[in-house]
Write a structure and sequence with these properties.
α6 crosses α9, α7 packs across α9 and α10 crosses α11. The model has no long low-confidence stretch (mean pLDDT 93). Helices cover 60% and strands 6% of the residues. It has 12 helices and 4 strands, in the order αααααααααααββββα.
């Protein structure tokens, strides 16, 4: 704060439930296109051929980036999350990430010259704290949106489909009563397979919290995934219940 609130206000018109609902027909069309691409073969990899593509193209559209460029952003968005810091593959992953950010910078400059609808335009024309955001700030915000739009959605979709494939009875139940179960099932998968499992934070001053002495500079891991398995909040927390009600999970740690 206060800049985070201003950035959030800037994005809210694009990410509100009403705004997102207007994209539903496009998501349906993308999903059908992915299935049609593979249906003649009789088999599909639901991660590579569906869960990777639909969130990526959708996020590109929301940001106002060329849809065909989704492949430039997709692999770096995932690989920077799943590659361990000491992996021998890290240099290749970082090379792809820097190429992605260079492409993003090109798009920022292009939108300034040739405005087009989307979140990129919203950022380049914004005023934050009485000033125009720097390109580094804009790239940082857009990078967060890419990570959130690509990786967490792909992860959640993949885990959900895997669970349904291993629980055919529940899969049939969901298919038979989709209008009544789809929303509660989605929230339950978010709770159970928390796609952003936690955040790191740094203690800024000495304090005692819940009987634990914390020192300035200590690092904390705030685990939303653990909070989502709290038996005091969620009965039978290690079970997926497609019709779970009052599902006040903390999948992205944002609160209200």
């Amino acid at each position: 704060p206060p800049h985070q609130k201003e950035y959030r206000s800037l994005m809210n018109p694009y990410l509100s439930p009403a705004a997102v609902a207007r994209w539903a027909p496009m998501v349906a069309d993308l999903t059908r296109a992915c299935l049609d691409e593979k249906i003649e073969s009789g088999s599909i990899d639901f991660v590579d051929d569906l869960a990777n593509i639909v969130p990526a193209v959708m996020t590109m559209a929301l940001m106002g980036l060329p849809l065909a460029d989704w492949v430039i952003y997709c692999e770096p968005a995932h690989a920077t999350i799943y590659t361990p810091p000491h992996s021998p593959d890290l240099p290749r992953v970082l090379e792809g990430y820097f190429a992605m950010m260079a492409k993003l910078q090109e798009e920022i400059e292009d939108v300034r010259q040739r405005p087009r609808p989307g979140l990129v335009h919203a950022f380049v024309t914004a005023t934050i704290g009485g000033q125009t955001p720097t390109d580094a700030d804009i790239r940082g915000q857009l990078g967060l949106l890419i990570g959130g739009g690509f990786d967490t959605t792909t992860s959640l979709t993949a885990k959900s489909l895997d669970w349904l494939s291993n629980n055919p009875g529940e899969r049939a139940r969901l298919a038979a009563d989709l209008p009544n179960l789809i929303n509660s099932a989605t929230e339950e998968f978010l709770r159970f397979y928390t796609p952003a499992p936690g955040d790191g934070r740094t203690v800024t001053q000495d304090c005692v919290y819940a009987g634990q002495q914390l020192k300035e500079g200590d690092r904390l891991w705030l685990s939303w995934a653990m909070a989502n398995r709290d038996p005091n909040v969620f009965p039978d927390p290690h079970q997926i219940k497609l019709d779970r009600t009052n599902n006040r999970h903390s999948s992205f740690g944002l609160g209200i």
